[in-house]
Design a protein that fits this description.
CATH architecture of the largest domain: Alpha-Beta Complex
Number of domains: 2
CATH superfamily of the largest domain: Protein tyrosine phosphatase superfamily
Distance between the termini: 43 Å
Number of strands: 14
Largest sheet: 5 strands, mixed
Length: 446
């Protein structure tokens, strides 16, 4: 069932603007375990994890993901390792150092690689080398490695290292903040070898019992997801090859909250990501005629008109994408039927629980329609909630986790802010009210 309460009258451009607001906790202030106020890096980079507003980390990248970084305004890309044969992910070839450098050069963004392919990353020297590269590069920067824990460890310690070197550096990071942030990101750096490096970088004593992440341990097999709590994870639009990676990582279910091809007998396909094309465009005109992916319309809105056509492929006639079948796109936009059909060949359980981005007002009634189904799915094992960039799924996933594990309103508000979404009495006030109605008000301290 699609929950639709108001007339379709919000453009995707207006919807997109909601993602760039900084967090403001409003009433019921609480301490966040993030290093700074987090935000989502963009529709196309929903999988990147913010360390600071200028530094984001990721696992191994394809050339498409590097092109997405250019589209979202990133100025630099750093590979932690000089990797000549990084392998593949989901059937797609990961970019080697030379390939990544080539893509970055055409896009006009800076690129660097830091460590030798098998060089030790859990050491002070690695942090020093990374810091040197970061300080020389224009921001924001996307840092990546096919070992997600390696790039997270060194990038987080870079902030601690800078905090010790520069009294004006922000955010200020010590051992406590390092461990809280790494746990929040789903990383476990509590082994002795890690703890000694943290202590050496910060100049503090070794932390004997640092906090551990509460996420399902094998989730990094699908590093693109965002841990919510225990077995709950959120994501933006997954790609065709991701099903194999999700299966291998031990996920049991995938919940899709994007709407299908039609609603109330009207076309309702959402948009797909297209290289060098902005996301804040509607799929249809006022008469429900599909217009976004018409070549005549696409050429009017190209993000970087000067971009070489080789940025798309060696044989491309244009410097932008027109379709995206890997993200279940057709000639109009995102096609849920293609995704649903693809899951039939997978061991993963697929659930389509759509919420319309244009008109849904989040409420207790909306949650009640899905509550029993969500809790049943949650009891089956690790769950990946996905939509366009992970916003709808974050709103519902945090609440589902709170209900399943008996968490209160303060926990839910803290967690949704840590995921990068502002929810309070003035921003996404309908989500705030839904949380309040389902979980109860925050109790005043005695």
């Amino acid at each position: 069932m699609v929950v639709r309460i108001a007339k379709r009258n919000t453009t995707l451009a207006q919807y997109g603007s909601l993602f760039v607001r900084f967090m403001s906790t409003g009433r019921g202030d609480f301490h966040l375990d993030t290093l700074s106020q987090r935000r989502v890096p963009g529709f196309k980079l929903w999988w990147a994890k913010e360390v600071t507003p200028k530094l984001y980390v990721a696992g191994g990248l394809t050339d498409t993901q590097i092109k997405y970084a250019h589209d979202e305004g990133f100025k630099g890309v750093i590979s932690l390792f000089h990797e000549n044969s990084p392998g593949q992910f989901g059937g797609e070839k990961l970019a080697s150092m030379s390939e990544a450098k080539y893509v970055a050069k055409i896009a006009g963004i800076q690129f660097d690689a830091i460590l030798k392919e098998n060089e030790d990353w859990a050491c002070v020297k690695a942090v020093e080398k990374l810091t040197d590269a970061i300080t020389k590069m224009e921001k924001p920067i996307l840092l990546y490695s096919r070992k997600p824990q390696a790039v997270a460890f060194t990038s987080l310690l870079h902030t601690a290292y800078m905090s010790k070197l520069d009294s004006k550096y922000e955010p200020r990071v010590n051992s406590e903040k390092f461990y809280k942030m790494s746990a929040l990101m789903g990383m476990d750096f509590t082994e002795d070898r890690f703890k000694s490096v943290v202590a050496e970088i910060t100049g503090e004593s070794i932390v004997s019992n640092p906090p551990k992440c509460d996420a399902y341990q094998n989730w990094l097999g699908y590093w693109l997801g965002h841990p919510v709590y225990k077995n709950w994870f959120t994501a933006g639009q997954i790609r065709r090859g991701h099903l194999k990676e999700l299966e291998a990582a031990g996920f049991k279910s995938v919940i899709n909250m994007r709407v299908g091809k039609t609603f109330n007998n009207n076309p309702s396909q959402e948009t797909v990501n297209l290289i060098n094309i902005p996301v804040n465009l509607n799929t249809y005109d006022e008469n429900y005629i599909p217009v976004r992916q018409k070549p005549s319309e696409l050429e009017k809105v190209v993000l970087d008109p000067a971009l070489d056509r080789k940025h798309i492929s060696p044989t491309s006639n244009v410097n932008y994408e027109t379709e995206n079948p890997e993200e279940y796109g057709d000639e109009i936009g995102y096609n849920e039927e293609l995704e649903s059909e693809h899951f039939k060949g997978s061991s993963l359980k697929y659930y389509h629980l759509p919420l319309d981005i244009y008109s849904t007002t989040f409420s207790t009634d909306v949650f009640k329609q899905y509550k029993d189904k969500l809790l049943k799915i949650g009891n089956d094992g690790p769950v990946l909630f996905h939509c366009t960039i992970g916003q709808r799924t974050a709103f519902m996933g945090v609440l589902a986790a709170a209900v399943q594990y008996n968490k209160d309103l303060q926990w839910a508000l803290k967690r949704i802010h840590e995921l990068g979404f502002t929810v309070n009495e003035t921003t996404f006030s309908d989500v705030y009210k839904m949380y309040n109605d389902v979980l109860g008000q925050i109790k005043a301290p005695r």
